[in-house]
């Protein structure tokens, strides 16, 4: 049972190796690495694990845009308040 759980989690565990190996090996920068991690995670969730359906993608993208805009607004307002 432990071996099955390990092999089921192996694709997700490879993300750590890809990220650390890419940065430490000088293959790509941290910014490029984040894009590669997003694409790899997208492939895992949609194609490998099938946790996200194609029809749910527009809703998920909209939710992530809203969350990102909230965070950026908070950062912008905090920078504005720090000038005072």
UniProtKB/TrEMBL annotation:
- What's the main place this protein lives? membrane
Per UniProt, the keywords (alphabetical) are: Cell inner membrane, Cell membrane, Membrane, Transmembrane, Transmembrane helix, Transport
Pfam families, A to Z: DctM (PF06808)
Return the InterPro entries for the record.
Answer: DctM (IPR010656), TRAP_DctM (IPR004681)
Topology relative to the membrane: Multi-pass membrane protein
Q: Transmembrane ranges?
A: 7-28, 34-52, 64-83
- State where the protein is found: Cell inner membrane
Which GO MF term does the entry hold, naming one?
Answer: transmembrane transporter activity
An example of a Gene Ontology cellular component annotation for this protein is: plasma membrane
Sequence ranges assigned to domain TRAP C4-dicarboxylate transport system permease DctM subunit in this UniProt record? 3-83
Q: What does this protein do?
A: Part of the tripartite ATP-independent periplasmic (TRAP) transport system.
**Protein name per Swiss-Prot or TrEMBL:** TRAP transporter large permease subunit
Question: What organism is the protein native to?
Answer: Klebsiella pneumoniae
